């Protein structure tokens, strides 16, 4: 086993084979975590930016001193949804080629197993992984054993009567009738650091910010280094042999040989970047929204402009001209939608100057939306004309 800091090229842990490799300690994992976070910093910044557009939290580029309500259309969210809707996660093309005619039957059995395993993955997990890959340029499946599905076998010494033991053993065997003893999760790349080398993924670190109380319920023996800590960083390290869990800088589980024989993280790459296996992560893994960020800003700005002018057109304001005291009294008592109003002498009430919504805004909005369609999905894909 070899762990390499790919930002510096230095080997962190080295061994001969997976069988006799030494387990990684906390210091090595934390060094790898820190250097990898720096390596993936630009990629994470890009993922955060994509989230701003998808969730509608991105600020609309309008003048700061202008009292308008910002409107950001849900175009970015719709693009990701449409992309996920047009990936048939229920019927993947799974093919296992046979290296020779004699291996044809074995290849068919493997293919049927893979098709059955895919059918057992919940559809919402598959769709989440597709959305991650579209929104961030890469997504991940995590496959691991579901230990809760494997109850402890009854022990004969716990049953004084042989019949009771056989009955308990029969119930245990019935509970072991498991069709799919795995858990498959969709892991966001925003919560993962992984081996990004051309040699293939050899390790990965999954991490989350969690509340100290929630973590302590899982690991009662753990206590925070700072007694006032509310939030901690939960880390889970995996390679092809070992698995370790840490809270902040403390190992709370492992290292253990997981015995899978493979890395549980499976990358899903839609190929939205130009480069595939060379260059920094932010160049290889790109959101489908990246080419249209400026267009999405322009669309939001145009919609906000048109809405602002249209609102002024719909909700008219009035001008009151006359002696100051009379004009003020009339304005205080005047109701725009009232059936009757009292106008004081020498006071003239007239509508304020009005600006009509210019059609050029709608024309430019149509041009911008057309350019967004050209770079992502045309409206006909969404069922529109």
Question: What does the model show?
Answer:
With 385 residues, the protein is an alpha+beta fold. Helices cover 37% and strands 18% of the residues. The protein has eleven helices and twelve strands. The chain has helices at residues 26-39, 41-55, 75-85, 104-119, 123-136, 162-175, 212-218, 281-284, 293-314, 324-333, 359-375, and strands spanning 2-5, 10-14, 139-145, 182-187, 192-194, 203-211, 231-239, 242-247, 250-257, 265-268, 318-321, 348-351. The chain has a five-stranded antiparallel sheet with strand order 5-6-7-8-9. A three-stranded antiparallel sheet has the order 4-3-10. The chain has a two-stranded antiparallel sheet with strand order 1-2. Helix 9 (293-314) packs antiparallel against helix 11 (359-375). The longest helix has 22 residues, at 293-314. The radius of gyration is 31 Å and the shape is elongated.
List keywords for this structure.
about 375 residues, alpha+beta, three-stranded antiparallel beta sheet, 12 strands, elongated, disordered N terminus
What is the compact description of this entry?
The chain has helices at residues 26-39, 41-55, 75-85, 104-119, 123-136, 162-175, 212-218, 281-284, 293-314, 324-333, 359-375, and strands at residues 2-5, 10-14, 139-145, 182-187, 192-194, 203-211, 231-239, 242-247, 250-257, 265-268, 318-321, 348-351.
């Amino acid at each position: 086993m070899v762990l390499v800091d790919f930002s510096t090229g230095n080997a962190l842990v080295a061994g001969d084979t997976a069988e006799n490799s030494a387990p990684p300690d906390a210091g090595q994992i934390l060094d790898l975590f820190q250097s990898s976070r720096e390596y993936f910093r630009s990629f994470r910044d890009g993922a955060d930016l994509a989230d701003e557009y998808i969730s509608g939290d991105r600020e609309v580029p309008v003048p700061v001193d202008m009292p308008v309500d910002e409107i950001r259309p849900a175009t970015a969210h719709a693009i990701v949804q449409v992309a996920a809707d047009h990936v048939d996660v229920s019927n993947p093309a799974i093919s296992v080629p046979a290296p020779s005619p004699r291996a044809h039957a074995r290849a068919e059995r493997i293919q049927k197993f893979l098709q059955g395993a895919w059918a057992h993955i919940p559809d919402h997990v598959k769709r989440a992984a597709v959305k991650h890959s579209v929104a961030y340029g890469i997504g991940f499946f995590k496959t691991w054993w579901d230990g809760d599905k494997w109850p402890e076998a009854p022990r004969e010494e716990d049953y004084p009567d042989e019949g009771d033991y056989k009955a308990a053993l029969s119930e245990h065997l019935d509970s072991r009738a498991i069709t799919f003893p795995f858990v498959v999760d969709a892991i966001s790349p925003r919560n993962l650091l992984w081996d990004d080398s051309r040699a293939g993924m050899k390790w990965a670190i999954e991490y989350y910010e969690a509340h100290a109380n929630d973590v302590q319920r899982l690991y009662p023996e753990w206590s925070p280094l700072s007694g006032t800590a509310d939030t901690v960083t939960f880390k889970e390290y995996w390679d092809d042999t070992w698995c370790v869990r840490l809270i902040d800088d403390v190992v709370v589980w492992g290292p253990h040989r997981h015995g899978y024989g493979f890395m549980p993280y499976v990358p899903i790459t839609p190929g939205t970047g130009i480069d595939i296996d060379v260059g920094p992560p932010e160049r290889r893994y790109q959101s489908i929204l990246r080419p249209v960020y400026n267009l999405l800003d322009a669309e939001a700005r145009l919609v906000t402009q048109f809405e602002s002018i249209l609102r002024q057109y719909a909700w008219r304001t009035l001008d009151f001209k006359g002696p100051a005291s009379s004009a003020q009294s009339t304005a205080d008592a005047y109701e725009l939608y009232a059936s009757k109003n009292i106008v004081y002498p020498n006071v003239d009430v007239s509508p304020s100057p009005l600006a009509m919504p210019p059609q050029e805004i709608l024309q430019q909005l149509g041009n911008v939306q057309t350019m967004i369609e050209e770079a992502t999905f045309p409206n006909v894909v969404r069922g529109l004309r």
